[in-house]
Design brief:
The protein has 465 residues and is of the alpha+beta class. The chain has ten helices and four strands; from the N terminus they run αααββααααββααα.
Length: 465
């Protein structure tokens, strides 16, 4: 994105990026699976991305097609074979010194004679609205392919992060549940022991057992989500999600340095690849409309032709030979007089297609603006939520310690201690999800303005450990 807002934003990321590159270089030996690794593997493995790349290459060829429409066309043909020919001319007149004749008849005839000939023709279009329209539409179509390729690259970057965090969330969710399950198992064993000693009532054992079974069910579902996420990751990248980084729940987030919402909205309106694609689509419909203007219908071309044909042999009147040798250079003008209403109906169709494209463009502008606004606002909201949840985790950790001590002393019930365990696990999971959302929203905001790059993936890696 080549505007002032984007340049300032990139400047703010420069120092962070330099630090991250140095850190990555220092930890190369460990070779963890990073967001950048995920994108690199997906870019070579994803069949959808390869299809988009092929489409972009096909679009480049349209530029040359547009140029070729205004180059001269040359054609040649040759004939060799056998054939018959008969010609009759009546009422002819000829004259020569001291001799003249009228009402003369000429007859020639060749049966199964030798036939051969050739023809060379050249045509250079000078004025042709249809070719001009085709040429412009091909160039616009090539630009559409470029914007589509840019959108595909942005989409691959987003999807790489989505698949990575999908696995990471599933794995860390299962880890938190496993940790909580281990704690509850210990509580359940201790409660059972104290019940057998007559220190606590039977209800305490029921409460701990119920909580234990509930966590086992939740963990089974979480492990299923891990398997599904890992399989989806493998389908997307072609590699197993091994040795992944994790979200550091103990590290507090830094406040994001964002420009004003108005600046991001203006950038999205100017640089979003989908909007640029639709803008070119409107221009294509405008060219289609111009093609069917009545006063632009005539065509003018420079044409040239050279031809030779000969047939000889025997016929009804004896041996004969017919030969034609000609050439011409000139201008050719074609004017459509009546086409049965085809052109007028095509123009009507083009008018409605243009109106449809304009309406869709307006709807897409509103959609992109809303998505940009949502992502911008969500970053600030997620930051505040993460900050609050970070404090909630600390508070629940303190509460759990106090409740465990109170339970040992008999001041707190088993249910109260289990509630404290649940509250801490819930806060940790919410913090995990919020931090992932905070990272993804920054990537999505950059994608809205067509400025998402691999540098953003490297920066997103700074939130992982």
């Amino acid at each position: 994105m080549n505007n002032s807002v984007r340049r300032r934003y990139r400047a703010l990321k420069g120092a962070v990026l330099a630090t991250l590159l140095a850190t990555l270089a220092a930890t190369t030996a460990a070779e963890p699976l990073t967001l950048l690794n995920t994108w690199e593997n997906a870019s070579t493995h994803s069949p959808i991305f390869r299809a988009e790349q092929a489409a972009q290459q096909a679009g480049r060829a349209r530029q040359q097609q547009a140029r070729s429409l205004w180059l001269p066309t040359v054609g040649a043909s040759a004939t060799l074979g056998r054939g018959s020919h008969k010609s009759t001319m009546q009422g002819a007149q000829f004259s020569m010194p001291s001799m003249a004749s009228e009402g003369v008849e000429f007859n020639t005839s060749v049966r199964n004679g030798r036939l051969y000939g050739y023809e060379v023709g050249v045509q250079q279009p000078l004025l042709n609205r249809e070719r001009l329209t085709q040429s412009r539409q091909l160039k616009l179509s090539a630009q559409v392919a470029d914007y589509q390729w840019q959108h595909a690259q942005q989409t691959l970057l987003i999807e790489s992060a989505q698949h990575y965090f999908s696995v990471l969330l599933a794995q860390q969710t299962a880890t938190v549940l496993q940790q909580q399950l281990a704690q509850v198992r210990q509580v359940q064993k201790e409660t059972q022991r104290r019940y057998e000693l007559g220190d606590v009532p039977i209800t305490n054992t029921h409460e701990s057992t119920a909580q234990l079974r509930m966590l086992e069910a939740q963990l089974a579902e979480a492990q299923q989500q891990v398997q599904l996420a890992e399989e989806s990751f493998f389908d997307f990248t072609g590699i197993e999600p091994k040795q992944m980084l994790t979200i550091n729940l103990d590290k507090e987030l830094e406040a994001p340095a964002l420009e004003s919402l108005g600046g991001w909205l203006a950038d999205a309106a100017r640089f979003n690849p989908m909007l640029k694609m639709h803008e070119k689509g409107i221009q294509i419909t405008q060219e289609e409309l111009a093609r069917y203007h009545a006063w632009k219908s005539p065509t003018l071309s420079l044409v040239g032709r050279a031809a030779y044909e000969k047939i000889d042999g025997s016929g009804r009147f004896g041996d004969a030979m017919n030969k034609a040798d000609e050439w011409m250079v000139g201008m050719q003008l074609n004017v459509p007089i009546f086409t049965g209403g085809y052109r007028s109906h095509k123009r009507t169709e083009a008018l409605h297609q243009q109106a449809e494209s304009v309406a869709k463009q307006e709807a897409l502008q509103q959609q992109i603006a809303q998505q940009t606004r949502t992502a911008w606002l969500a970053i600030g909201t997620s930051f505040q939520q993460a900050k609050a949840l970070q404090e909630a985790v600390h508070a629940n950790q303190a509460r759990l310690k106090a409740t465990q001590l109170g339970h040992q002393l008999g001041h707190n019930t088993t249910l109260e201690m289990l509630d404290a365990e649940n509250a801490l696990a819930s806060a940790r999971l919410q913090l995990l999800q919020t931090k992932v959302a905070f990272i993804m929203q920054q990537l999505e905001l950059n994608a809205m303005v067509g400025g998402l790059t691999t540098e953003d993936l490297i920066i997103a890696n700074s939130y992982l450990k």
